[in-house]
Design goal:
Layout lengths: L7 H31 L4 E9 L5 H5 L12 E10 L15 E4 L5 E11 L9 E4 L2 E4 L8 E10 L6 E3 L9 E2 L2
Parallel strand pairs: 1-9
Antiparallel strand pairs: 1-2, 2-7, 3-6, 3-8, 4-7, 5-6
């Protein structure tokens, strides 16, 4: 005797099989989307600034010969650009525009240079350009989970500061909180 195709046991069994297949397809789709999302880069920035007159000896030492003789009105800043991506380097070709750090209009940048790294980045390959109250960081290679640290010396206030620049997969660098 053959089983009735409409028997409640077979209907439940078929629904369980269809549900299991749908669950596997959903899991594989979500996993693939997540993997694609992690395979991107995220350019972020962080900084620390303080008046030269208030800086301790260790902080002053990081600036070396870039320190001006007169500390009045001088602000020292350590600025870091980071690739927080887990699976993708940022290549110089990924930059659509250079990174620009703009300070208040009454401020004047005296010095800006890439001086240190974390990870596989190369600060010697990073070119900066100063124009009044702005620092332009030209495109450079930034490997995944790496950063480049800049020393910036300016006369005047460091805030408010505006950081801009576009990459192929990102509209602007993200501030770290």
């Amino acid at each position: 005797m053959e089983a009735d195709p409409m028997s409640p046991d077979l209907v439940v069994q078929n629904l369980v099989i269809i549900g299991a297949i749908a669950l596997v397809v959903y899991y594989l789709t979500v996993r693939a989307k997540r993997r694609r999302a992690l395979a991107t880069y995220t350019l972020a920035y962080a900084f620390h600034a303080e008046a030269m007159a208030n800086a301790d000896a260790d902080f002053l030492a990081t600036f070396g010969a870039a320190l001006p003789a007169n500390a009045t009105g001088t602000v020292l800043m350590r600025f870091s650009l980071l690739n927080r991506g887990k699976d993708k380097d940022i290549a110089r070709d990924d930059f659509l525009t250079p990174v620009e750090i703009a300070f208040p209009s009454e401020s004047i940048v005296r010095h800006a240079q890439a001086v240190e790294k974390n990870g596989a980045a190369d600060p010697a390959a990073v070119r900066t350009e100063i124009s009044g109250n702005r620092v332009l960081v030209h495109p450079f290679d930034l490997p995944q989970r790496s950063s480049v640290i800049f020393n910036i010396v300016l006369d005047g206030s460091a805030s408010p500061m505006d950081v801009s620049g576009r990459l192929k997969a990102q509209d602007a660098p993200e501030p770290l909180s």
